[in-house]
Write a structure and sequence with these properties.
The structure holds two protein chains of two kinds. By secondary structure, chain A is an alpha/beta fold. Helices cover 19% and strands 38% of the residues of chain A. Chain B has one domain: Rossmann fold (3-Layer(aba) Sandwich). In chain B, the strands form three sheets. A six-stranded mixed β-sheet of chain B has the order 6-9-10-3-11-12, sandwiched between helices. Chain B has a four-stranded antiparallel β-sheet with strand order 2-1-4-5. A two-stranded antiparallel ribbon of chain B has the order 7-8. Classes of the chains: A alpha/beta, B alpha/beta. The site of magnesium ion has 5 residues of chain B, from helix 1. Chain A: Pfam families: SUFBD_core (PF01458), SufBD_N (PF19295).
Chain lengths: 436, 254
């Protein structure tokens, strides 16, 4: 594929590349240059690209954006809106991708390394893994991130270390009087028999400017390790977020990825790619998107069953109001040798407005014969009988609708294992569904 | 308490209720009987405010107010309660959360603060005992996977907790074994007083042995074709409805 359209944004990046490169931390030069060549070959996708058929990303790249490799200053009081009541966790704050030591409380226990990716650049492990878990050949945004990332975190949990409390990773974005293009990059490695929980969230503090965030997170979950990742996307209006999460699992590992996309960012595209490189792994991918106004939420998931005896279980649910649009793509690939695979996928939607829209497509590619795979898609409105039943008990119409949305989301929220996070999400869902 | 006058209603363009007249006073128990499809559940639905029914003629006055002007939740808060013939299952809403929300919405309407957690627990326990409701069902999803009898008992539990002025029980007795029927009836008998009223929709005289009605009405083809006392229920049990249908059709053709 060659770049068919050259937009102002594309030209800005290509023309500015040499200068931008000078502003990024060193040590990754060959990787960056190779990725940039790939980006130029791929170009920015249009709706002609299969993976972008229902998402015209060009619409969200029209405004002029400025490459923003630096952090702004943020104070503790500004973080208040993102605090999760009752959450007992370590806290790591990134501002425009840059680690803020003064705002962070790191684990004191041995065996946990948390540092800016740039600072970890010379570690052999980083050299070995960075950029090796994403499909650069067909992912223009991941290629662009690889070429020009700044900021982001290297996290390593040593073998047999169970991190005692979750890590609350707060991504703060800020810009003043201009639109900022920000590209954080994470590399997380959870070693054999280790366990880690990360709760990730976003806080957009920009003033008179829009943020466009194009992030990548590569994670390796080693043998018999367990990693839970709660990604809470509830950023301010106008923000645009593209994120590629690539996770590799080794044998007997367990991975639980939760993705909550709630109002009000205008654009969200999540790529979640899970590669099962070992036998007997377990992967749970749970997603909930509640979108209102004119939000566009696109979840693109890919589970690659490369080895036998692995279980993957995927459930994405959506509630769409106003003129919100959602896209769900669920690709499952089962390699010929991946016998005894169990792969389940379900995408269910509540469409609460005539103008809301969902495009959902499963993509199953199964090359092994002894497997159990299933997929399903539903879209519906409120159950009128249920609504009447609740109202007939004196429950007001709005409260009744809230209860039904909460009930719809329950399959997902019920599986959140951190009570404070669960309460936080449930109350945010309630706030999101004011029906006009 | 309730006056239904010349009530006509249709659903999906089909005329179902064809001129119902009924007066209910506080302290009274009315039974409504009649063959399947005669419009009993439809009458209950119109009273509770089910939105797919359209009232084409007539009026319903409840405690001096025009009931038809009120949204379903307002009717409930004003004191109307319908025990559903087919209670709805709502996965993901726990029974206890549902009850708490309902009780507190009722309280808010009366200008009362939400019930304290401990008081609510005590109140629930008390009412649970009244209908021998299995405590294990409280934390389960509302009606999901409940047996027929459990669902019906849950309706009566809700009735007990919301303390309505007018309760309409739509075939609450069907699907109950004799023990469950006795429990439900005892519950209702304990809840009745000189200020509230009950409408029992039933097929069987059996229920009326436990809850003795002041009036028995026969609904047929969208109209009340006969009203009597509890002896009428016995007569229906013996003779069926055919004699009434015949009389009705004779009258129609005049
Ligand atoms: N939603 C509906 N759409 C069309 N017809 C209906 C609907 N609900 C009830 N009916 C019809 O109304 C009539 C009365 O039904 P119903 O009130 O349930 O009777 P009963 O409770 O006395 O058995 C029946 O002929 C039934 O088919
Ligand atoms: Mg009926």
């Amino acid at each position: 594929m060659t770049n068919e359209v050259t937009t102002p944004f594309y030209n800005y990046i290509v023309d500015g590349f040499p200068g931008f490169l000078d502003a990024t931390p060193g040590n990754f030069l060959p990787l960056r240059e190779e990725a940039f060549t790939r980006f130029k070959t791929l170009g920015l996708p249009t709706t002609k690209a299969e993976d972008w058929r229902y998402t015209n990303v060009q619409l969200f790249l029209k405004d002029p954006f400025t490459f923003s490799p630096v952090a702004g200053t943020v104070t503790e009081t500004q973080l208040a809106p993102a605090s999760i009541v009752g959450l007992d966790a370590y806290r790591v704050v990134l501002v425009n991708g840059h680690f803020q030591e003064n705002l962070s409380t790191l684990p004191a226990i041995k065996g946990v390394t948390i540092e800016p990716l740039a600072a970890a650049a010379t570690r052999p492990l980083v050299q070995e893994h960075l950029g090796q878990h994403i499909h650069l050949q067909d992912q223009p945004f991941a290629a662009l991130n690889t070429a020009l990332f700044t900021g982001g975190l290297f996290i390593e949990v040593a073998a047999n270390v169970i991190v005692d409390k979750p890590i609350y990773l707060l991504n703060v974005y800020t810009t003043t009087h201009k639109n900022a293009f920000i590209q954080p990059r994470n590399l997380w490695i959870i070693h054999t028999n280790a366990a880690l929980e990360i709760v990730e969230s976003v806080l957009d503090l920009s003033d008179n400017g829009i943020v466009l965030v194009n992030g990548v997170t590569e994670t390796i979950v080693k043998e018999n390790a367990e990693f839970s990742h709660y990604n809470l996307q509830m950023a301010a209006k106008d923000g645009r977020y593209i994120h590629y999460t690539a996770t590799e699992q080794e044998q007997y590992s367990r991975y639980h990825h939760f993705n909550f996309t709630l109002p009000a960012a205008s654009f969200t595209r999540n790529n979640l790619s899970v590669a099962l490189h070992g036998n007997y792994t377990e992967s749970n991918m749970l997603g909930l998107y509640v979108a209102n106004d004119a939000q566009h939420v696109d979840n693109h998931t890919f589970v690659d069953h490369l080895r036998p005896n692995c279980n993957s279980n995927e459930l994405y649910k959506g509630v769409l109001l106003d003129s919100a649009k959602a896209v769900f793509t669920g690709r499952i690939h089962v390699n010929q040798i991946a016998q005894k695979t169990n792969a389940f996928q379900q995408n269910s939607n509540l469409l609460l407005s005539d103008k809301a829209d969902i495009n959902s497509q499963p993509q199953l590619e199964i090359y092994a014969d002894d497997v159990k795979c299933s997929h399903g898609f539903t879209v519906g409105q409120f159950n009128q009988e249920a609504l009447f039943y609740l109202r007939s008990r004196g429950i007001g119409e709005e409260a009744a609708r809230n209860m039904l949305v909460g009930a719809f989301a329950y399959d997902i929220t019920d599986q959140v294992k951190i009570p404070a996070v669960q309460d936080y999400i449930i109350s945010h869902i309630e706030e999101s569904i004011v029906i006009n | 308490m309730l006056s239904i006058r010349n009530l006509h209603a249709e659903v999906e363009g089909k005329q179902i209720l064809k001129g119902i007249n009924l007066e209910i006073n506080r302290g009274e128990i009315h039974a409504i009987m009649g063959p399947n499809g005669s419009g009993k559940s439809s009458l209950a639905s119109v009273l509770a405010g089910r939105e797919n029914y359209t009232v084409t003629q007539g009026e319903i006055i409840f405690e001096g107010q025009d009931l038809l002007e009120m949204a379903p939740e307002v009717r409930a808060r004003e004191g109307i309660f319908l025990a559903f013939q087919y209670p709805v299952e709502i996965p993901g809403v726990s029974n206890i959360t549902f009850l708490k929300t309902a009780v507190n919405e009722m309280r808010a309407y009366k200008g009362l603060p939400p019930m304290e957690a401990r008081d609510f627990l005590k109140y629930t326990k008390e009412k649970q005992q009244l209908v021998s409701f299995d405590a294990n069902l409280m934390n389960r999803s509302l009606n999901e996977g409940f047996s027929g009898g459990e669902k019906k008992r849950n309706e009566i539990l809700q009735l007990a907790m919301l303390e309505p002025k007018l309760s309409i029980l739509d075939e609450t007795d069907s699907g109950l074994d004799i023990d469950a029927l006795r429990i439900v009836s005892n519950g209702v008998n304990k809840l009745r007083n000189s200020d509230n009223a009950f409408v029992m929709i039933t097929h069987y005289q059996r229920l009326l042995e436990y809850i003795v009605p002041d009036f028995v009405h026969v609904l047929y083809n969208g109209q009340i074709v006969k009203t009597g006392t509890k002896e009428l229920a016995l007569e229906l049990e013996e003779k069926g409805y055919d004699w009434l249908k015949e009389a009705y059709h004779l009258k129609e053709s005049v």
